[in-house]
Amino acid sequence: MIGIAALAVGIVLGLIFHPAVPEAIQPYLPIAVVAALDAVFGGLRAYLERIFDPKVFVVSFVFNVFVAALIVYVGDQLGVGTQLSTAIIVVLGIRIFGNAAALRRRLFGA
């Protein structure tokens, strides 16, 4: 319940203040969002399977975002940032859809 309230407050504050993302961070934001979504879907799956551990969730959330951003940063330094960004999106997308399929099976039995 607290998470839903925090999400609602965050959305309202974002709509009111229109925060600007610094240009230096813009290439990393989509990757960070997808990495965070991967952790959220994994957490939902673990919750429904009754194996959810808040400590594991927080570490997974932070670590996924950090590692994904680090890989994109290294790729940018090597001149292959776009290719590595695509690879990260594909890998995390596969994980998200795998977790979504597990959620669907658990919730709907299909």
From TrEMBL:
One of its GO terms (cellular component) is plasma membrane. It is a multi-pass membrane protein. Signal peptide: none annotated. Keywords: Cell membrane, Membrane, Transmembrane, Transmembrane helix. It is found in: Cell membrane. The chain crosses the membrane at residues 29-48, 55-74, 80-98. It comes from the Bacteria. Its main location: membrane. Belongs to the sbp family. This is Small basic protein.
